[in-house]
Amino acid sequence: MNNQDFTTTILVDQSPEEVFNAIKNVRGWWSENIEGSTSKVNDVFNYAYKDAHRAKIKLTEVVPNKKVVWHVLDNYFNFTKDKSEWKDTNIVFEISKKGTQTQLRFTHEGLVPDYECFEICSEGWSNYIKNSLRGLIISGKGAPNPKEGGFNEQLLKQHNK
Q: Which residue among 33, 92, 103, 133 is least crowded, i.e. fewest CB within 10 A of its CB?
């Protein structure tokens, strides 16, 4: 059976160390509305976007310049029947060399097509990884959600049409 977990990959000219450091700067690419530490094993942080999405995430694996794994301890969506769809899923960042470039493979283990949020969440992750995180790695400037608004607001408007 094919693995249906959401996955996306980017290639950059920067080093694995630069990619690793950018991943840990969650406020620099995902959301400025992050509370808690986001850099070492057992760190726990909270993500919130208005009343639409909240998540409590724990770093369960941090291998410098190679891998970061987040475990979703708790989750809430206001736009799905199952409000806790992400709960107990893992968000995995794998860093490797591909020739002269560095590859980042992002997988949200457990985010599968059966999830009601799969489409909107896949679009969101694609944007954050391919645009915002990539921008942070390449230029030092990501496009995280500000305290209010940003890309999440656009997605929710499309989803609620």
A: 103
Residue 85 tokens, joined: 């769809």
Is the CB of residue 4 less than 8 Å from the CB of residue 112? Answer: yes
Q: To the nearest 10°, report the CA torsion of 76, 155, 71, 8.
A: 160
- Alpha helices, DSSP H only, in 7-145? 16-24, 26-29, 118-127, 134-139
Domains of the chain from N-terminus onward: 6-159 (3.30.530.20)
pTM of the model: 0.90
Which pLDDT score is estimated for 5? Answer: 96
DSSP state, 23? H
Q: How many residues does the chain have?
A: 161
